[in-house]
Amino acid sequence: MNPPRILIVDDETSNIELIAEIFTEDHEVLFATDGIKALELATTTDPDLILLDVMLPGLDGFEICTRLKAEPHVSAIPVIFITGRDDTATETRGLALGAVDYITKPINPQIVRMRVSNHIELKRARDRLTQLATTDGLTGLANRRRFDEVLECEVQRHRRSSAPLTVLMLDIDHFKLYNDTYGHLRGDDCLRAIARTIEEALLRTTDLAARYGGEEFACILPNTGTSAAVTAIAERIRTQVMALKIPHETSPTAAYVTVSLGLTTHYCTASTQPQQLTAIADKQLYVAKAEGRNRYALDGLVVEPLHGRPHLPSQIR
């Protein structure tokens, strides 16, 4: 297991050095001297815990804590206030904002170390429980619950950033026939192999692959909107599944297991709802299947597997 990562936020370098000395031997220690840098590090480095001074130039500790708790990606990171203000009102305010503890200066190194250790242990236990609750037991991918949670967060985030968000839905072609022919144990092996292939085809850590249900999978692709980028991902998944060469002798469309994909890209607005994106991507998936399977459809255009040229669905040509 990686050593715990702690983010120290204090505008006094002497305080940072003092606190860092307590943890450098067996923790990864990061630091920031202002609120903007603290928020940046919190969102990009995923610390296990934040030690946060109340009195800071610009954004004070209370404002930083408020912003952290409002951001779904970092809201679960425990925050401990460390401050020279030893009064009930300040402590109450900090805890009310979501901090897990409040330590006054001058600090006692042993007490700080024990409190930090306890809160990191609790966080990691919660993380393990969350992972169990949000992971598909068969494939190891995110489950439907996790997919829905992440999509909700990404829609909210993309409303603010004005960046494009892409949702991909994928279905294994003629999977019922596959199970009927080879049995459910082989079917489970097929699902696991395709899950690994989808996960390997997503090259960024910010992308999410999930088992949506049965033989259907779904992906969330943040900040992805150019047709070249979107189609490259879809084609990579499609061709890499074919490269597995999983025999499917009863398939009406191919000698091996193939997949069909539907994709949609949106610039999220205040009215955009997560279920709208999955519904549109699912509709595109059925367009791809109606056009012959082993291909993908992106917002009304279908790309066939042989020549790769997009065209309109046959029913509207």
What does this structure look like?
The protein is α/β, with parallel strands linked by helices. It folds into 2 domains: 5-133, Response regulator (Rossmann fold, 3-Layer(aba) Sandwich), CATH 3.40.50.2300; 144-316, Alpha-Beta Plaits. 45% of the residues lie in helices and 20% in strands. The chain starts with a strand and ends in a 6-residue tail after the last strand.
Radius of gyration: 24 Å
CATH architecture of the largest domain: 2-Layer Sandwich
Question: What is the tally of helical segments?
Answer: 10
As laid out across the biggest beta sheet, the strand order is 7-8-6-9-10-11-12
Strand pairing plus helix content: what structural class? alpha/beta
The coarse silhouette is elongated
Strand content: 15-25%
CATH level-3 fold name of the largest domain: Alpha-Beta Plaits
List the secondary-structure elements in sequence, H or E: EHEHEHEHEHHEHHEEHEHEEE
| Residue windows where pLDDT falls under 50 for at least 5 positions | none
What is the CATH class designation of the largest domain?
Alpha Beta
Number of strand elements: 12
Average pLDDT, rounded to a whole number, is 92
Main β-sheet description: 7 strands, mixed
CATH superfamily of the largest domain: Reverse transcriptase/Diguanylate cyclase domain
In total, the number of domains comes to: 2
Roughly what percent helix? 40-55%
The separation of the N and C termini measures 56 Å
